[in-house]
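Ticket #1022: bound-state structure for iron/sulfur cluster.
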Amino acid sequence: MTPLLSALSDICRKYPLKEKVLITPDYRLGREVLQALSRSGEPWVNFTLATASSLASEAAEKIITEKKLKRVSGPGIMAIVEDVFYGLADSGKLGYFEKHETNSGIINALTGVIMELRTKGISPSAIKGEYLTNADKARDIDLIFSEYEKRLDEKKLIDKAGLTLIALEGLKDLPSRQRRYIIFSRYYMSGLEREFIERLAGKDLEIISDGPVFGIKEPKGLWGKQTKGDFKDSSALAWVYDTRKASKAAAGGDLELFASRGSREEVKEVFRRMALRDISLDDAEIVYPDSGEYRREIMLYSEKLACPVTFSEGIPAMVTGPFRAVRCFLDWIKHDFWEIYLRHALASGDIKTDKNNDGRDLTSLGHLLKISGVGWSRPRYEKVLGKKEAEFLKKAEKPYSDEEADNHDGYLKMAADIGMLRQICTGLLALVPEPGDDGLVRLKDMCAGVSDFLRQYTVSRSSYDSDFVEEALKRSAAIGDLGVDRMTLSEAADKLLGTFFTVNVNPSEPRPGHLHVSHYKHGARSARGNIFFVGLDEMRFPGRRTEDPVLLDSERERISPALEVSSDGIRKNIYDMASALSGTRGSVTASFSMYDIREERNVFPSSLMLQLYRLKTSRPDADYEDLLGSIIKGEGSLGIERGEAPLDITEMWIKKLSRGGVLKDGTEAVKNIYPCIAEGLKAEEARESAEFTEYDGNLVVTGGELDPRESGGIVLSCSKLEKAAGCPFRYFISNVLCVDKPEETNKDVTSWLNAMQKGSLLHEVFETFTAEMREKGEGLSALDEKETAEKILVSKAEKYREEIPPSNDMVYLAELSVMRKDLDVFLLTNRKLRTSPVHEELEFGTGGKDPVKIFLPGGKHFFLRGIIDRLDKVSGHEYHVWDYKTGSAYKYERRQYLAGGEQFQHALYASAAETILKETGEDECPVVTKSGYILASEKASGSGKGAIFARDPSRKHIWQEALETLLGIISLGGFLKDPGNSCSFCDYAAMCGGKNEKERAALKKSSGHPAMELWRKLKDYE
Ligand code: SF4
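RESOLUTION: The complex was predicted; output attached.
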């Protein structure tokens, strides 16, 4: 029997029929101990459980009823402190503490300090300026503390300290009860609470302790003193911190130590040892020291093995589906409704909606949202999704091409999916209150919306999930009732998220047939025969000594000796663990993980592990080297390494696939069973070779199926051709395999438009400007032109702003000012040209216009489509063709003509312009004498290269020959890779390997394939 149960047993025998009140920090712990007492065979009757608060409520009941007071706790208290803090900060009354965008940390700390001061019976006036390092801080704490107490009085609320004060007052009227009070020695108490228990119980107080602890000082607030008598029947573990005095006979005992290579492995090893020793689940308990990691690992592994488990603290909310869902929802609200958060919620399957009554899986809607172009901002959901839905419906009803007609059903399905997504988004947005003119919302409304979300949209798959929803609803209601009235959406979301994070779900006392898991502070009391203490590394135990952020240790010491300092916390941790160890009977196993997988670093054992090793080996002088040498190489090695039976399916496979600790080569077996993997391995092998194979882009071509010069060949654009000349493999992925990177609207708080959007906006401005100038006629002054251009820019920018909202006004104005400078460069260049366009944005092969035939020397041709930015008439039949470029000038050099095939556009557009002018009858013998690029951006002009890059289109023999070479590579199907600078901007880098492929690509180039020769030739065209 453990010392705790033995003490209880003595009390039961001494007072068999008398009412016995076990004062416990929490009811579950009380039930656990009484259950253990029953299992030990000790009969007992007339036990009741009570906490210090429940006893105080009993004593204070009459006064509370008379005064019509209401209890407030946890989130409610924090909400009041926050309200007080915001009120004082907003009215400029605080001199030390400042209000920031996120204040949850400081509110938490202030709440903790106020609660501590109140329970110790310390009043606001005791916080004197001379006690603190900063007089303003003392004044602020006094203000916040006093205002908090005032609010409680006004609202007739009582917190724990208030309740205890009333209870002390009510003690005098409390009828005498014939009770024995029993309290755990480690139910640390001081101040008002201790005074209340001492006065209530008087001489009728019994103190029970888990086990004696030798060699360390007792912590503040402990009940009772250790006596000499405690040495009797002590476990060897009572001397863990006094190993020199540990009796040789007692030392050693049933104590095992081991180390693992990660917390997951450690948990696995515990299960393995239980299996090997044939320990039944309900004769074992795992005790952990951290806040979440071990509970999560134990939960996951026990689920894998289908082992029932009870967690005394419950499990962290973050492992539940509803928490993940509400977290995404709140993050979505907080980040201006950025679709990425909602997408994650949809894709995770953690949310449901009555819109998917047909049981449709919502996960695919996440992808649809990603590519929808919604991006962020509340109004865009209806606007963008509504527009997209209408577009698909229109395509289904009124197809413009055979292709569209063939895809009728596909368009209808897309419209239906987008419609469903729109409804879901509308429903979710309706839960979020609209900010008023002051940009604020009522916290109560926000809490109501989040509660509706929890009820309507979350999926509960287990009791953990439903437990979380229940607790979250309670907390949400408490915050809504007591919190600050108005705040920003982001603040409200933060507040709710902060409180949901601290929820622990489904706490339970030990149950028959279940493994029990507990924290060391209250653990190891189940009286089970096998206790596993895990996580005993230096990071987790005894914990870090951290000072309170509001009241420093030195300040606390000056205010009152009753206040705890940081070393008190560490002392308690060490004492609690030692007491828990001392209180065990039976087998004890202690372990730690030597490696932190997440942080990727080695971890050292805690000093406790060393003490346990010293105790076990009766070597008080042993050091860490001895410990590590022993537990890593010797008896502490892991079961799987010792060749023991596998515990789960993964280990079963590892065991089957290994011999003598070395994994067998299962490649052939896997290839035989999985033909797709076999194909993949074959491809990888081929890519590794020096040959230019089909896996490198060398296609087996029959006839002229890829040749754009064959009749029925595909319509090309200049950008496609130039990309093929930059890297044929990219052309292959994009135009032969037709693989597109999904479009995504990314939110960047530091910029508004991406390069392509900015280019489109400027193109529209230039087009509108030159068209207006043509109407107004010549002779406008530079100032008039600037005014006109400015108006056009602002109106176009506003239109874009509606479609693509900037993250804030500053970003918008900054980008507008850069575009103004680009516009200045354009206006200057436009005047320098001394020609005016007769056509802007002249389309061919798009917008219902026919493509243009481009003839090649052998008489063959191919079809080209494109848009000529401007076609200027010089005089008579002479024309110039220009293309605006709004990026940098790095690709453009004066002496270059074709840039290895990456600049065909000037030549092809000149040819296309002549054809169009002739075919439309606008000019029967047009000649384009100049064609080139206008670099209309401040960035490009700053390079010093100038803004106008004109080329001579009459050098037909050169560009036609180069074009034939490029088309030759395409028609041969020799799509080699050319990794280089363009890989940095290539959409396919992730699937092709990008620059890392440089060496392999160079190897392939010496393969002798005809495409390689053509490639070298193409690159010679400067
Ligand atoms: S990443 Fe580089 S090598 Fe690969 S396709 Fe793109 S440009 Fe070519």
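RESOLUTION NOTES: The longest strand covers residues 861-875.
TICKET STATUS: resolved
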